[in-house]
Design a protein that fits this description.
Residues 372-387 have low confidence and may be disordered. The protein folds into 2 domains: 5-183, P-loop containing nucleotide triphosphate hydrolases (Rossmann fold, 3-Layer(aba) Sandwich), CATH 3.40.50.300; 192-383, P-loop containing nucleotide triphosphate hydrolases (Rossmann fold, 3-Layer(aba) Sandwich), CATH 3.40.50.300. 31% of the residues lie in helices and 18% in strands. Helix 6 (139-148) packs parallel to helix 7. It is of the alpha/beta class. The chain has an 8-stranded mixed beta sheet, covered by helices on one side. Strands 3-2-4-5-1-6 form a 6-stranded parallel beta sheet, with helices on both faces. It has 11 helices and 14 strands. The two termini are 42 Å apart. Helix 6 (139-148) links the parallel strand 4 and strand 5.
Length: 387
């Protein structure tokens, strides 16, 4: 992933340079436009002005992805704290009150308590907040930032909102008292075929521009049970050594089941898995720079990128209205995690309603080879041929 300022595209450099150090700013960009890289760059630049700087995410896994980016930018990164919003907010409140903040049913806090404390807290000269995937945080968080008098920069894409507690660009800007969002364009992550498929799930006005980089078309695999997931992943890992393979599942139970099956079939594979329920250890802290298989939950996938992305359980969405904006946003996020290859899978006799209408030249169908022509260990699939 891009690290230094000189490695940025001209448009990314202009976007970064156009933001004044003072004031509050919102930057809107589609998947692959470099929001995370620019958030890290922005945080380090603000730290160089002398004030304490905090780079925030909602996802702990995205925090783990951003921390090395900041660290690679040089000694000035020592002035930047990279944290999840929950962790930093809890620490800030405890520092100012000596007690833990009250939680609500939404999973967030009693914001009135934060507003009261921010209103009387002393102003910290040059204090800066930078937020990556800012649509993941609720509108009250941005009102808190404004009351706190922090100079706040937010990178966001409202087409990737996944829950009701998240914010639109308008809500972010209004909460901060910021002007109209700065636009960040381009897609430097996905290939053109992947972005073309993702466009089928896009919600909102307009469509992001398609990148020029080409690659194989996304594939939809008909899987005959959980064992077929393992067959698919082992085949991909064998034929793409040195590549990162992100496996995104809709159930924590399925995450553990898949991990167990992979380790039994191939002890030398050493897949990694992240679960938000873990408090420490193997399932909490990952080495995202290491190639191989990484198993994550959908809730933790946003902001990440993998050489190959595999979503093998799309049948879990078969009962959801395929016109649902929430479902389409979820698949927009899933599809745009892939840098080079994208694989969907489903179990059952029919394709999920969201995927079935997509043309075959955009989403290639793969069916298992006929049983009479394969051994039990054969993982060969054959593409759907249109008549």
């Amino acid at each position: 992933m891009t690290l230094s300022y000189l490695d940025l595209t001209q448009h990314q450099q202009v976007s970064l340079d156009a933001l004044p150090f003072d004031g509050n700013h919102v930057v809107s960009g589609p998947p692959g436009s470099g929001k995370s890289v620019l958030a890290a760059q922005r945080a380090v630049m603000l730290a160089l002005t002398g004030g304490p700087t905090v780079l925030l995410t909602r996802s702990n896994l995205l925090r783990q992805s951003l921390a090395p980016l900041v660290s690679a930018l040089g000694p000035q990164q020592d002035g930047v704290v990279v944290a999840t919003a929950h962790t930093w907010l809890s620490g800030w409140y405890r520092e100012h009150t000596g007690s833990a903040p009250s939680r609500t049913d939404s999973g967030w806090f009693d914001w009135s308590e934060f507003f009261q404390q921010a209103a009387v807290a002393p102003t910290v000269p040059g204090f800066s907040l930078v937020v990556d995937e800012g649509q993941d945080l609720p509108p009250d968080f941005y009102r808190f930032c404004r009351v706190l008098r922090a100079r706040t920069t937010v990178y966001a894409d409202e087409c990737q909102r996944l829950t009701d507690t998240q914010s639109t660009l308008e809500e972010i800007a209004r909460g901060l008292g910021a002007g109209y969002p700065h636009d960040l364009t381009g897609n430097h992550r996905n290939t053109r075929p992947i972005a073309k498929l993702a466009a089928h799930f896009h919600v909102g006005a307009g469509r992001p521009a398609l990148p020029e980089r080409t690659g194989p078309p996304p594939r939809l695999h008909a899987l005959q049970g959980p064992g077929a997931r393992v067959d698919l992943l082992l085949g991909l890992a064998e034929h793409r050594p040195g590549r990162s393979i992100g496996v995104v599942l809709n159930s924590s139970r399925d995450q553990f089941d898949l991990l167990t099956r992979l380790e039994r079939r191939s002890p030398r594979l050493k897949p990694q898995m992240y679960t938000a329920q873990a408090t420490s250890g193997r399932y909490k802290n990952l080495d995202l720079s290491r190639p191989g298989i990484v198993i994550v939950h959908r809730a933790s996938a946003k902001g990440l990128g993998f050489d190959l992305t595999v979503v093998p359980d799309t049948q879990t969405d078969a009962g959801t209205d395929p016109t649902s904006a929430a479902l389409r946003m979820a698949y927009y996020v899933l599809a745009t995690r892939a840098r080079s290859e994208l694989h969907f899978g489903y179990e059952g006799s029919s394709e999920p309603p969201l995927l079935a209408p997509i043309p075959r030249h955009v989403l290639v169908r793969e069916y298992p080879a006929p049983a009479a022509h394969r051994s039990p260990a054969d993982t060969t699939t054959r593409p759907h041929q249109e008549l």
